[in-house]
Write a structure and sequence with these properties.
The chain has three helices and three strands; from the N terminus they run αβββαα. By secondary structure, it is an alpha+beta fold.
């Protein structure tokens, strides 16, 4: 399934919907962690205007989401 063109800021908002919280920020990279679910890896999202599809797919995989689930979360922004 084709991934959308999305910014780092919007991606952070999507991951916050599923329980991730911002732990820290160093320059343009934001670190998120989900304390409620130990199976979710901590993820680092660059706060750029556009995220490349490979990076976005990796972030979705690390959060144990499918592309379809991610796309449904984007629609609610």
């Amino acid at each position: 399934m084709k991934l959308p063109i999305i910014s780092g800021k919007d991606t952070i908002r999507v991951f916050e919907k599923i329980g991730y919280r911002i732990v820290r920020q160093k320059r343009s990279h934001v670190r998120l962690r989900d304390n409620s679910n130990p199976y979710h890896k901590p993820i680092t999202i660059p706060n750029h205007k556009v995220l490349k599809p490979g990076l976005l797919r990796k972030l979705i995989k690390d959060a144990n989401l499918s592309v379809e689930e991610f796309l449904s979360l984007i629609k609610d922004l």
